[in-house]
Specification:
The complex is a heterodimer of chains A (about 325) and B (about 1200). Chain A contains twelve helices and twelve strands. Chain A has helices at about 30-40, 50-65, 90-100, 115-125, 150-165, 180-190, 225-235, 255-260, 270-275, 280-295, 300-305, 320-330; strands at about 5-10, 10-15, 20, 40-50, 105-110, 130-135, 170-175, 195-200, 205-210, 215, 245, 265-270. Chain B is an alpha/beta fold and about 1200 residues long.
Chain lengths: ~325, ~1200
């Protein structure tokens, strides 16, 4: 029996639900080709960070200007170059190059800071040939004067503005920290989002107890992390009319199956590929195949959402009662 | 033909022609010619071609001598080769110049003429260097202006091919090399038309080739050398006509007619000045002015000085001339007259015509101003019945009475020429903005424009002065503006220090960057400023440029804001157009650095005019503030009367008698120059401090000091005095204080970065934190003054072997003019703490000689006993040898003193003699005891009436151990001085060499040296250096008897201290290579120590000590002090622009080079590890040194 692994996401027909998430492997055409060869169905580029572009530009200016035109013997300290790649061009060129080198869809990803920047760069990513755009809305609200509704409103406006300016599908990558996620998700869909990616894994800072300094700490994900998006996709599936992608903690074929059963169209994977190489995608697909064959599933579409909150016998198991049940099991 | 009108400086104008007409270019950095080499290197890197369509090959050599040698070789094999140099560099080329000329080889050397180091070094312009080459056989062709520099460059290249006489084309350093002026740029067709390809091919055909072998460079004997030397005469006889021919061809082509000697002035002139270079331009303009007033004066502007054509010279001289005044921009002590004067005297004597009286004088040495007023003084002198000969003009010589009086008020500037002066701070971008303004005015309006920029000799908190002229006529005024219609002061604090308005013309404009608005600014001005504004009836404008800059994300760079104000007030362009042009210039200048930079600048421009206000000037002085004295009243007399004047910017007014005749200056004078340049200083928190000494250890300016003292001193301490219980087991019951000199601090923040003590309840608070300076300036000054009265630590009472203890020692290197956060000076300061009272320093030219020895004040200091480092700078290339000479003196004197001593045993005491001869001086106690013995010896020798006793008395001090430290940068140690350094190390003598390794030529602006690491970008390695850093330490270790250490205090301060102590203790040569973070690396130096750490952790900079003394103990001499590398090199490197800029420009090459750099680090580490693991278990093998040359 042949298992049909194909799925649709953001209106695109994909050969399976295993998508390569943003990582160093999705930055270069050589590794992108390796991922494609191993079977992934699409590639999500790393994010174009507007803030990073601005900072890089200002820092370069500061560093090149430091000490210049001040001392007669040394009017500057570094040679003059005709051009620096401090704008979005490096990103766009990488996108174009990957797009040329693979046959699977390539998604751009964007993190902006200004409305103008979001729109401008979204258009540029579209023009560079991206098949879809992921909006990596990363805003950590630290100002006590900023209310949740103001923040949500800003997100909605942004999605709506970008929707008006680009024609390719848009997915919004969200953080898990929303009080009323289903409502917010629905409003995002109404504003024009074609998909939601759950959830953004923030780089959580760590403390170095020797130096008493806050240190950035990038930790690769583990399978148990997927419980959070699993629950929320299961809850939102069928309630909000968008496609879902699960990200964070997907490491095996079984993890992918769980995600699909919760209602995800695709899973996006980075840590597993970073640890085991691009070829791991083939193994994941093999695991899916084996399980589905053993359990006699014929297609991914068949099981999509099959364990969403709407589909399970005990919808409450996704809600608060679940916690109590766990406790009582001890 | 239409040629572009461009605004550029003399260096660029010259380099443009040279690059277009060369195949091989050998370069080496030296001020003020370095930019020519930099342009050539960058253009070739950008694949810009010469007129034959191929890219000139540019190579940086290890010295100017090397550049000349490479050029010689390239010429000998048929290339069109050139080089650029100045000053000492030109001197190093002289041997090759004789050869090149002797072999009749066509070439052009372009020289931005500069003073030679005599009683002192000077980077500024005169003809001393060029005059030193006048017997080499090179033709010497002079340019007087930026336009001429371009034109003469071409005429030189064209002429040399036909004449076969090599050419030295020169123009005045800084005055012409760095003056920005609007010129008509030659186009490639002009260059093609002037160069005869047949001559090029003939030159190539003369090149050495095994296909048609010949031999040059023979040795000749008395029988033939003389005759052979005379063979070239016809070429020299023909040369002037050839040059004139190309000048005429140039005129036909371009329209500007030059002659070998250009005459300007009255056809019936009775008084004529002969001069060359920019001074001739000033003289010519002044002659025209005076001629219009009816005076019979003229000027001969010399272009072709060698070969000197008497015929052509006499042809231009009016027959009416009665007195000739020859002006030389050089000094030849002891000569019958300066060179040009002597040539003119000879020409007149040899001529058959008129015999006017000839007088000669000197002017303009080291860019001393040469103004129309001085020209008039010379003409006036020439009119006298008994004019002074061998005069000087421009100074007041009250020693030999050579100087002419002149009226500084005499002015010939056309009233329609607009003159503007801008006072700026180096870091605020004023000069860069003014260069853009000049370009805008020059290229976007019909005006002619000129810009000249005066810089500070300090490397932090620098003051810059921009002189801008523009107007309807070409600007031929190569001298500073003294009467400006527009004066802008970009820093409010300057009003407190300088007479900012001294250049303002009555009725002019004064623009001030002020935090005070139009209604309140008046009362905050010093009395002198108020007076100047009222008396000169100035229109007064203010803007809070810093606020606009802050609001628009520009930080401290107020350049475009002030530039917008200038255009708005001056009205040189309609406002809208001006703003459009400023934005265009911003886009052009900064566009490549990213859109964000452009947008922020645009926003700053747009917000400027709303914040620009004219101030209603009151009619009376209301202020109680006065300008500060340059030095305090209690400063020594010489500091007050001489150095103080220089500090105040009045050095020009000092007479000859003010100066020592032999260049000897007192040390310890920076303490009087309170520059007050930072807005933030560190503040000590006694409750948190663990008294580790690290902040003081790393402070580049020695402004953080600590003392341990008796609690009794607290009684009279100021109210704001802070103290803590001293945490030293050696000092129970004592108090400890740490202070900061608020007006000497540069605000670099290294101290805060290095402080390890954090508040347990608030980790952001350390034991030392930056705080705004103005509110605590006075308080901290009082504390600082009190601190100075506390007794210095007794060096014999504790061990100096820990970082903590070392910082109780008084630094004898303080408050230097180095960059804020300098990575070099903390090492020097530590040296002086450890050995300063008994060290002699030989200092190579470079950053350390400039911040260490540039007037007005010197950071090398002395202690309360009057002892301190004795310091001297000889040259760049000879520093190791210079230091070795110092050691030889000491060794010889010690030997002689030790020979004399026993002869006086009976008179001074046998015990004393024996103790003096056998003293153990390995500790501070031993040294002190020896000093006491020497004092006793001197007392006893006083009474002995014997000439040998007088000798011993004069030598007695050498019996106390001295250290000779040879200090310099990597440009010296790895490149130009390497041969000498190697020889000195090999000598086995007891000298200590400290290499302050910044991995580039820092002082001249970051050119690549052999120390520059692979993958780093530097000037002359614009595409990233492709070869790895030379391993100087490994080379030195190969001798086996040289102590070698590689240190980085940011990675291990204790290892640094250990290395210094061991090097000093080692009885033989020592080499310490010190990682010195540098402004040329392109990042905030506050992070310098962190970068040092990363350099070590990535394996780029392994720490080690190689102590040959260990060999005798059967131990491996190599001790690696750092751990196995844990970081990729990129993690360290890409924090610095010198690496990152390549990544942003050519990612592929950057990554390829970085991979190689990773391999370099790994392979070198592996090699060190293997060496450190070798067994040295045969003590008999010794250290390979036989002990010769070892003393004391």
């Amino acid at each position: 029996m042949m298992v049909d692994l194909s799925t649709t996401y953001l209106g695109l027909k994909l050969k399976n639900p295993v998508v390569a998430s943003s990582s160093p492997l999705t930055q270069k055409s050589e590794t992108a080709q390796a991922l494609e060869a191993a079977g992934v169905s699409a590639i999500i580029m790393h994010s174009l960070f507007e803030e990073q572009i601005i900072r890089e530009s200002l820092k370069l200016h500061e560093d090149l200007s430091r000490g210049s035109e001040s001392f007669a013997e040394a009017l500057d300290y570094l040679p003059t170059y005709g051009q620096y790649s401090v704008g979005p061009e490096t990103y766009l060129e990488a996108l174009r190059k990957i797009k040329r080198s693979v046959n699977i869809p390539v998604f751009g990803s964007l993190n902006g800071v200004s409305t103008g920047g979001w729109i401008d760069y979204a258009q540029k990513i579209q023009d560079a040939g991206a098949d879809a755009l992921e909006l990596n809305i990363y805003y950590l609200a630290t100002d006590p004067d900023l209310t949740s509704s103001e923040l949500e409103e800003a997100y909605i406006t942004l999605v709506s503005d970008i929707r008006k300016r680009v024609s390719i599908p848009i997915a919004v990558k969200l953080s898990p920290f929303f009080t009323a996620l289903p409502n917010f998700a629905r409003r995002l869909a109404e504003a024009g989002a074609d998909g939601l990616v759950l959830f953004n894994r923030f780089y959580q800072p760590d403390f170095d107890l020797e130096t008493l300094e806050v240190t950035p700490n990038l930790v690769l994900s583990h399978s148990n992390e997927m419980r959070l998006p699993l629950r929320w996709i299961a809850i939102l599936y069928g309630r909000v009319a968008v496609d879902f992608a699960m990200t964070g903690g997907v490491h095996s074929g079984l993890d992918v199956i769980k995600a699909v059963m919760a209602g995800a169209c695709v899973t996006t994977i980075a840590s597993e590929f970073l640890q085991k190489g691009a070829g791991r995608a083939a193994g994941i697909l093999e695991e899916m195949n084996a399980w589905m064959e053993e359990k006699e599933y014929t297609s991914v579409m068949q099981m999509k959402g099959s364990m969403s909150q709407k589909a399970v016998a005990e919808p409450a198991s996704f809600e608060r009662a679940n916690y109590m049940k766990v406790l009582s099991s001890y | 033909m239409k040629r572009p009108l461009v605004t550029l400086d003399g260096n660029e104008a010259t380099a443009y022609v040279a690059h277009k007409l060369s195949e091989v270019i050998a370069i080496y950095p030296i001020t003020p010619s370095s930019p020519m080499g930099e342009f050539a290197d960058e253009w070739s890197a950008q694949r810009r071609t010469n007129i034959w369509g191929t890219v000139p090959m540019v190579i940086e050599m290890q010295s100017e001598g090397g550049a000349a040698g490479a050029v010689h070789g390239a010429l000998q094999t048929g290339s069109l080769a050139t080089t650029f140099t100045a000053s000492q560099g030109l001197l190093l080329m002289i041997p090759n110049m004789y050869k090149i000329a002797g072999e009749l080889t066509s070439t052009v050397f372009h020289v931005s003429a500069r003073s030679l180091a005599a009683q002192a070094l000077s980077i500024f312009g005169d003809h001393s260097d060029v005059m030193a080459t006048r017997s080499t056989g090179f033709a010497l062709l002079a340019s007087s202006s930026v336009q001429e520099a371009q034109d003469m460059a071409l005429i030189a290249h064209a002429s040399t091919l036909e004449a076969r006489v090599p050419f030295l084309h020169f123009f005045d350093g800084f005055r012409t090399s760095h003056e920005v002026n609007k010129i008509e740029q030659l186009v490639e067709d002009d260059l093609r038309a002037m160069i005869d390809d047949h001559l090029v091919q003939a030159h190539r055909a003369r090149g050495l080739s095994p296909d048609r072998p010949v031999l040059r460079g023979t040795a000749q004997n008395p029988d033939v050398y003389f005759q052979a030397r005379e063979t070239v005469n016809p070429y020299y006889q023909a040369c002037p006509e050839i040059v004139q021919k190309y000048m005429d061809k140039f005129a036909a082509l371009v329209g500007r007619q030059y002659r070998l000697f250009d005459y300007i002035g009255a056809p019936d002139a009775e008084r004529v000045i002969i001069a060359m270079g920019s001074g001739a331009e000033t003289a010519g303009e002044t002659a025209k002015y005076l001629m219009e007033k009816g005076e019979k004066v003229g000027v001969v502007k010399v272009h072709l000085y060698r070969p000197f054509s008497v015929k052509h010279f006499l042809q231009v001289l009016p027959e009416t001339v009665r007195t000739i005044a020859v002006l030389d921009r050089t000094k030849e002590p002891g000569a019958a007259g300066e060179p040009l004067y002597q040539d003119v005297v000879t020409a007149i004597a040899e001529g058959n015509g008129i015999k006017p009286r000839v007088i000669g004088g000197r002017y303009g040495l080291s860019s001393k101003e040469f103004t129309p007023a001085m020209v008039k003084a010379v003409f006036d002198e020439a009119a006298k019945a008994q004019p002074k000969n061998h005069f000087t003009v421009g100074i007041y010589d009250d020693v030999s009475n050579t100087s002419l009086d002149y009226d500084p008020a005499f002015d010939i500037e056309a009233p329609e020429t607009v003159r503007c002066i801008f006072w700026g701070l180096g870091s605020d971008g004023t000069v860069g903005a003014n260069k853009n303004s000049i370009k805008i005015i020059g290229e976007e309006t019909d005006n002619w424009a000129q810009g000249y920029f005066v810089y500070d000799s300090k490397k932090s908190g620098q003051v810059t002065l921009s002189h801008l002229r523009f107007g309807p006529k070409p600007i031929r005024a190569p001298y500073l503006i003294t009467q400006a219609q527009f004066v802008a002061c970009h820093q409010f604090s300057f009003l407190e220090r300088f007479d900012v308005l001294k250049y303002a013309m009555p009725g002019g404009v004064f623009l001030l960057n002020s935090i005070y608005g139009p209604d309140e600014v008046w009362d905050h001005l010093p009395i002198e400023t108020q007076k100047g504004i009222i008396e000169k009836k100035l229109r007064f404008y203010v803007i809070d440029a810093n606020e606009v800059a802050q609001k628009t994300g520009m930080g401290g760079r107020i350049n475009t804001i002030m530039q917008t104000c200038f255009f708005a007030i001056s009205g040189v362009l309609p406002r809208e157009q001006a703003i459009k042009e400023i934005k265009k210039a911003i886009e052009k200048t900064y566009g490549k650095r990213g859109e964000a930079v452009v947008q922020r600048n645009f926003e700053a421009v747009d917000r400027t005019l709303d914040n620009l206000f004219e101030v209603k000037v009151p009619d009376k002085i209301t202020s109680k503030l006065t300008r500060r004295q340059p030095v305090p009243e209690n400063a020594p007399e010489f500091v007050r009367n001489v150095l103080g004047k220089i500090i105040a910017g009045e050095g020009d007014s000092l007479p000859v008698s003010a100066f020592p005749a032999d260049g000897t200056f007192p040390t310890g004078t920076t303490q009087w120059e309170k520059r007050n340049i930072t807005l933030e200083i560190p503040v000590w928190e006694p409750d948190l401090c663990i008294q580790c000494g690290k902040c003081s250890f790393v402070c580049p300016h020695a402004v953080i000091r600590e003392k341990v003292y008796d609690p009794a001193y607290l009684e009279n301490a100021p109210a704001s005095w802070l103290s803590a219980d001293a945490r030293w087991k050696e000092f129970p019951g004592m108090k400890y204080s740490l202070v900061v000199s608020p007006e000497d601090c540069t605000g670099c923040g290294l101290c805060v970065e290095v402080c390890p003590a954090k508040d347990k309840s608030q980790v952001g608070r350390k034991a030392i934190n930056m705080a705004p300076q103005p509110p605590i300036r006075e308080r901290e000054n009082i504390n600082w003054q009190y601190f100075l009265t506390l007794p210095e630590a007794d060096r014999t009472q504790f061990s100096v072997k820990s970082v903590k203890n070392s910082q109780l020692l008084q630094p004898l290197f303080e408050f230097s003019g180095a960059c804020a956060g300098c990575g070099e000076t903390p090492y020097i300061k530590l040296l002086t703490q450890l050995f300063g009272d008994r060290m002699v320093v030989a200092n190579a030219t470079g950053c350390s000689s400039i911040y260490g020895g540039n007037l007005p004040t010197t950071p090398w200091s002395f202690n309360k006993e009057g002892r301190g480092p004795a310091w001297s700078n000889s040259l760049f290339e000879d520093n190791a040898e210079f230091g070795l000479g110092m050691r030889l003196t000491l060794d010889k004197q010690i030997e002689y003193a030790r020979e004399l001593l026993p002869q006086f045993s009976a008179q001074v005491g046998e015990d004393l003699v024996s103790n003096l001869l056998n003293a153990d001086q390995s500790s501070e106690t031993g040294i002190r005891q020896q000093r006491e013995r020497v004092t006793l010896l001197k007392q006893r020798l006083q009474t002995i009436n014997d000439p040998r006793a007088r000798d011993l008395l004069s030598l007695a001090d050498v019996l106390v151990r001295k250290s000779v430290w040879i200090i310099g940068g990597d440009g010296w140690a790895y490149d130009i001085g390497y041969g000498g350094l190697d020889h000195v190390l090999a000598s086995g003598r007891n000298v200590k060499i400290l290499v302050l390794d910044t991995e580039v030529y820092s002082n001249t602006g970051g050119q690549s040296s052999k120390s520059t690491p692979r993958a780093a970008v530097a000037k002359f390695a614009a595409q990233g250096k492709g070869t790895p850093k030379k391993d100087l330490g490994m080379i030195a270790m190969s001798y086996g008897y040289v102590y070698v250490a590689r240190i980085a205090m940011g990675a291990s301060d204790q290892q640094t201290l250990n290395a210094f102590l061991e090097a000093d203790a080692y009885d033989g040569p020592a080499l310490i290579i010190a990682y010195s973070h540098c402004i040329a690396h392109g990042y905030d130096l506050r992070k310098g120590l962190e970068q040092q750490k990363l350099a070590v952790e990535s394996g780029v900079w392994p720490l080690y000590r190689f102590n040959p003394a260990l060999i005798a103990e059967g131990k491996n001499p190599l001790l690696i002090d750092s751990k196995d590398p844990t970081l990729p090199v990129s993690k360290y490197a890409y924090n610095e622009t010198r690496y990152r800029m390549l990544l942003l420009s050519d990612e592929q090459r950057a990554e390829a080079l970085m991979q190689l750099a990773e391999k370099d680090a790994k392979s070198r580490w592996a090699m060190y590890r293997q060496m450190a693991a070798m067994h040295y278990n045969d003590p008999a093998s010794g250290n390979g040194k036989d002990g010769d040359g070892q003393h004391g």
